[in-house]
What does this fold into?
Amino acid sequence: MEIRMTEEDFEDMRIASREAKHVLDEQQYGVGIDVLSAIVAEMGRARRHGERFSSLHEAYAVILEELDEVWEITRKKRCNRNELELRKEFIQIAAMALKAVESMSNFTGGTV
It folds into this structure.
């Protein structure tokens, strides 16, 4: 049996996916959550990419990427900024900064 999907079907799937992502973001980063717990949870999610940063360059690049996302929000007019997205980015920056501190032994010493 062949299943054919229309453009409308794909659009419905995209909308449902965005709505599900918003609900998940609200649970993880929304107003009323414990921020420190959210940072710890974000660190746990980041560990899927490795326990520690392998270099200071990597830590810098990851933190800069998160900061660039804050800059994109900053450039919007205040009335167009999304609080949930901004909270999410700041929590991610905090988590990556803590991951960098945990990775400090990879950043100093050695012969290079």
About this structure: Residues 7-29 form the longest helix (23 residues). The mean pLDDT is 91. Residues 7-106 form one domain. The radius of gyration is 18 Å.
